Amino acid sequence: MASPLRVRFLGTGDAFGTGGRLQACLCVDGPGGRLLLDCGASALIALKRARLDPASVGWVCLSHLHGDHFGGIPFLILDGQFGRREAPLAVAGPPGTRTRITEAMEVLFPGSSRVVRRFPLELIEVAPDTSTRLGPATVQAFPVEHASGALAYALRLEWAGRTLAYSGDTGWCEALAAAARGADLFVCEAYTFERQIRYHLDHATLAARLGGIGARRVILTHLGPEMLARRAEAAAECADDGLTVDV
Length: 247
Fold this sequence. Notes:
Strand content: 25-35%
Helix content: 10-25%
Number of strands: 14
Low-confidence stretches: none
Number of domains: 1
Order of helices and strands: EEEHEHHEHEEEEEHEHHEHEE
């Protein structure tokens, strides 16, 4: 039987494009539509490079409000406007999402937040420790440790009988373990290999705890220079831009 979810790693890099990688963006296809987990500033480029129609994205769920995780939203919205998109688009994120997206649009393209849309656009703010329905999927938000001027979440996606957990950016915390426990796929940041950086996760810390999480498959993303240099030593798969997996 075919797997119900297909996950494309459109962007697997850090904020600075280390190794020529694009910024954070996961594309999840399942029964009923297409959803993005994070939408970094390069996400529209990544979608078009993968020959995926941006207008086919029905929902976006943001882990937090740093530019390498949400900065592609203004471009996605404007591409829909100029591409004569008609299908609705819903963007969900932590409290502050509406203001941050509006401000970003005005900085990048003055006046763009106030135009009449050709398509319905819904901006949803997700409270911590709650579940939100995004089309065919349910997303649960777990507050984690990452300073972005707003709450940061790890996300647990339930869709078509499968569970996908996504760390976003965070230092190690028990909320991350709760979000990922028993998941069919856990996509997790591994910014460094051993060096500890506040609000980020290093491979050594993660590897020591993976056994207790019990995820069926773990794939590492958001790889920085140290992690890329030592990826052959990693305790789990390392993603590259363009990797596609079935869940």
